[in-house]
Amino acid sequence: ASGVGVNEACLTTFQELKLKKKHKYIIFNLNKDFTEIVVEKTSEAQDYDTFISDLPETECRWAIYDFEFDKEGAGKRNKIVFLSWSPDDAKIKQKMVFASSRDALKRSLNGVAVELQGTDYSEVSYENRKWSISFPFVKPFVLSPFRLLFACIHLLSLSSPGILLLP
């Protein structure tokens, strides 16, 4: 914990999004002294790409997004998503303060269904997020060719106990 406080406007604005649907998303930042989390921006824009374009390319932010998606056979669904935005090109000090302050903000926002992290725009693209939000219990991952081969061999060994696996 960094000892950073959460401004009351963060809680009020979140309740407006959650209960009154007054906002589609909220972007949070630290004040200039790095002592308090504040609301930087709210928007009613329905377009997900507009939300993504409001995330700075080289600075960290947190965001709440009221994510709407079509669930096959079940119609439209909404989930409130908490995004920790920490671009690769952000300054190290800023990344550290944002990482250590995240829990203070997240704990104060009751009703978040899914928590996501992003370090570049491709990670937070609509299709990537839709998949993660629709199935939050499944963690997407990327396997290197070596790890993929190892995983295949491991699966084979489960059905053929005579195979010895070495990491």
Task: Explain what you see.
The protein is of the alpha/beta class and 167 residues long. It has a single domain (5-140), classed as Severin (3-Layer(aba) Sandwich), CATH 3.40.20.10. Helices cover 36% and strands 26% of the residues. The protein has 5 helices and 6 strands. It has helices spanning 8-20, 48-53, 92-108, 126-134, 145-159, and strands at residues 5-6, 25-30, 36-43, 61-71, 75-85, 114-118. Strands 1-3-2-4-5-6 form a 6-stranded mixed β-sheet. Strand 5 (75-85), helix 3 (92-108) and strand 6 (114-118) form a beta-alpha-beta unit. The longest helix has 17 residues, at 92-108. It is globular, with a radius of gyration of 19 Å. The two termini are 36 Å apart.
Task: Jot down its keywords.
167 residues; alpha/beta; Severin; 6 strands; actin-binding; Cofilin; ADF/Cofilin
Order of helices and strands: EHEEHEEHEHH
Query: How large a portion of the residues is in β-strands, by DSSP E?
Result: 25-35%
**What's the CATH architecture name?**
3-Layer(aba) Sandwich
Count of discrete structural domains: 1
Which helices and strands occur, and which strands form pairs?
Elements: E1 5-6, H1 8-20, E2 25-30, E3 36-43, H2 48-53, E4 61-71, E5 75-85, H3 92-108, E6 114-118, H4 126-134, H5 145-159
Parallel strand pairs: 1-3, 5-6
Antiparallel strand pairs: 2-3, 2-4, 4-5
